[in-house]
Prior knowledge:
Elements: H1 4-29, H2 33-55, H3 58-89, H4 95-100, E1 108-115, E2 121-127, E3 130-136, H5 139-154, E4 162-167, H6 179-184, H7 192-205
Parallel strand pairs: 3-4
Antiparallel strand pairs: 1-2, 2-3
Amino acid sequence: MARKEPAADAANTGRLKQIALTYKMTRKADSKIGLVLAAVGIVTFGVFLAIGFLIGHPIYLGILGFLLAFLAMAIIFGRRAERAAFGQMEGQPGAAAAVLDNIGRGWTTTPAVAMNRSQDVVHRAVGKAGIVLVAEGNPNRVKTLLAAEKRKMARIVADVPVHDLLVGNGEGQVPLKKLRTTMLKLPRVLPGPQVTATNDRLRAMGDLMANMPLPKGPMPKGMRMPKGGGKTR
Length: 233
């Protein structure tokens, strides 16, 4: 027991530090976050306490109101923190890769399977919906990258449905904050074994990342492709 308690204390301390760091980062993009959370907590608690006085049970409703106020604040904080994070990532090369990296179980993602010298990039995700190519960059230029990647895959995974999504805020594009939801709504048509087989075939085919290691998450704005990097194999 003595060994488990320090470990639990360390885990709790780590969570608190993470929450504090998330709050600081959110406050930089959302200066009203503190006022909003305070208002939500006070109003929620006040409503339940008032109901408690009306029905003659202020203590019980006060405790319930306190717990629900804390829950409401946590939900609002999570949503605004997520919105602030997407706002900071939006427009940065590689932002979609960061979203794909956290899409959840059942998906295998490979960032930057195709890229050109203008930092237009195509990422790949494989799941029960099939293959999803996620492009970010200039709409006209990424069409060339998507077409080349589809031709390359057609030779070995012709029996697997391929979807392509362009991240952006224009017509026919998918906003970064809705990318994960959009992908999860795609119809699931592949059984588990076929998903595994598709991943194995694509891995054998290779991709751009095998020869050009890149950091995870949004790519540095000053980064440039080496000569010949825009060619697909």
